[in-house]
Amino acid sequence: MSETSCKHAAEPCARKVPIFSSLTNEDLIKISSMIKHRKYSKGQPLVLEEEPSDTLYIIKKGQVKLLKMTPQGKEQILHILTTGDFFGELNIFNSDELSNFSAYALKDTDICLLTKTDMEQLVQENPDISLRLLKTITKRLAHTENLAQSLATKDPEIRIAYMILELTDKYGKPQKGHMHIQLPLSREELANYVGVTRETISRKFSKFEENGIIELIGNKQMILKDRAALEQYID
Q: pLDDT tens digits, residue range 168-217?
């Protein structure tokens, strides 16, 4: 797979990443000389679970899903990441350097990569990056705990309501008094995310739509029309 340097890019990856926001232009230029670019096609794996990994992956453009396989052989999606997000940070500081998840491109995606050696140097020279990394890791841990709590409930409506709210907060855009969401996952993937069948998620979506809570536009768009009603499911 071909790689190119970020050094001569019109817009260096580091400018898009919140953990590097405190750095000077000089530092950003220095980071750009370390970063490599790589392109992934939709459905292509970036990282596979239990494989060696010593790289920080920064999403320059596109979307990536992080997942683990259940003992039953089904996908359990952990996170959906988009432009400006990153992953692999735990492998940077973990001595065994084995990935504890797999990552797949949800669409054609441009990735910037920083090696463990370069990342360790950056952290030593810029301690503030460690604090920003810690904040991101803490948020993801909270998300994982919420996901585990959601999956623990036997009520699929609660799980699906939680997922819609999460997708709204991350991808929703206000339009004509409602939130319009470009769904990053297929129906099958959405079902895997909340641990239900595809038939169940389609049936519950239809129920929410009949109750005026959401409106579906094809398979990839949703309008959240009544957030308060949806929040009642998880209160």
A: 988 899 998 899 999 989 999 999 888 888 999 999 999 999 999 999 99
Intra-chain end-to-end CA distance of the chain, in Å: 48
Beta strands per DSSP E along 3-131: 4-5, 36-40, 45-47, 55-61, 63-69, 75-82, 86-87, 102-105, 109-115
> What is the rounded CA–CA span in Å between residue 213 and residue 128?
43
What parts of the chain have a pLDDT lower than 70? 1-14, 16, 18-19, 21-22, 92-96, 130, 143-154
CA 53 distance to own-chain centroid: 18
List, as one string, the DSSP characters of 191-224. HHHHT--HHHHHHHHHHHHHTTSEEEETTTEEEE
Of 7, 29, 6, 28, nearest to 19 by C-alpha is 28
Cα gap 113→92, rounded to integer Å? 12
CA pair distance 94, 92, nearest whole angstrom: 6
Instruction: Record the pTM.
Output: 0.75
